[in-house]
Design goal:
This protein is an alpha+beta fold and 76 residues long. It has one domain. It has a two-stranded parallel sheet with strand order 1-2. Helix 2 links the parallel strand 1 and strand 2. The protein is elongated and about 70 Å long. The N and C termini lie far apart (66 Å).
């Protein structure tokens, strides 16, 4: 019985270690959202504000990229 409990404890530690390591490294992640909408588009401004808030809450860096005028050539 003692061997079974020890085996289960070791197995649980092995399975949870990678998850804990990934959770600790979240501050290094960066998410980028690219849209082709102009700054005047209210829908995409809502999305932009939403990802900024989510990034703060989760503790990751986020960036929203778009052409200010909506001209895709401006993004090049």
């Amino acid at each position: 019985m003692k061997t079974l409990i020890t085996s289960l404890a070791v197995g649980a530690a092995v399975l949870t270690a990678p998850v804990a390591a990934m959770a600790a490294g979240h501050g290094e992640l960066k998410y980028v959202l690219v849209s082709h909408a102009p700054d005047s588009d209210t829908w995409w401004n809502t999305i932009k504000n939403g990802i900024a808030l989510a990034g703060e809450q989760v503790g990751v860096e986020v960036e929203y990229r778009n052409p200010p005028t909506g001209d895709i050539a401006d993004m090049a």
